[in-house]
Amino acid sequence: MSEEIYYEDTLPGGCHWSLQMQKGLSLRFIDKEGGANVGLLLYNPNNLLERYNAPDTLKCQHTFKLTRGNCLYSDMGRVFCSIVEDSAGWHDTVCGNLTRQALIERWGERSFQEYRNDWCRSGCDAFLVEIAKYGLGKRDLAANLNLFSKVSVDDTGNLQFDSSIAAIDRFIELRFEMDTLVIFHTCPHPLNPAKSYPKKPVTFQIRHSAAVTENDPCRNLCPENQRGLQNSALYTLGLR
Questions:
Q1: What is this structure's pTM?
Q2: Is residue 173 a contact partner of residue 217, using CB atoms and an 8 Å limit?
Q3: SS3 4
Q4: What digits encode the pLDDT tens for the residues 32-65?
Q5: H or E segment and range at residue 107
Q6: Which residues pair with 47 in a beta bridge?
Q7: Would the pLDDT of 111 be above 90?
Q8: Taking the C-alpha atoms of 12, 79, 175 and 222 in order, what is their torsion angle to the nearest 10 degrees?
Q9: CB-based burial of residue 222 (10 Å sphere; 0-12 exposed, 13-18 middle, 19+ buried)?
Q10: Which residues contact 210 (CB under 8 A, 6 or more apart)?
Q11: CA distance 29 to 8
Q12: How far is it, in rounded angstroms, from Cα 97 to Cα 144?
């Protein structure tokens, strides 16, 4: 982890953004007020057909949640990035995105024409608007991450939103192992039961990241991570 910050900005709640991260940099997300959700998708900017793969990420690391030590895999068996720091301890991997219909049913419809900057957008629409900037569309949406959001399972197997980890200034830091197009939004988690549409801002920082060492916790979490990081290193070497 590096304390040197190259760039910093804050994305208001209910908004979307994207940026290209280079190998050797880290991206830190900070939940400034507590209770934020960051929907996240990852693509290879040199081959947009390669994108984040949730099933491979979970099964190769034998986990249901993501936290420090875990890696985020592409559908080509490469590691986009590794979670090197995490003060939240749990990030949802399976609940997907808030749809426009679910938003309307839960909080009502607030159009831009009527409410201007106070309108409400679903996570699905936020992703679609952002990926369109890169020539991508609905069929290019993959299963996304929900940073800072936790879900639990009841006795009957139903998933429930769990707000127990919500806290001011929680953060997660991603170290990028290959060049990556990062798409993210700050729209609510699809299971969030809040009475009104929650608009929670998130600060993001671009930092220098240290090289992967032999005792790196992400590398040594499991043999699969060692192979995944090796695949990323080989791929990056081929792009030089």
A1: 0.93
A2: no
A3: coil
A4: 999 999 999 999 999 999 999 999 999 999 998 9
A5: helix 100-107
A6: 44
A7: no
A8: 120
A9: middle
A10: 1, 2
A11: 10
A12: 7
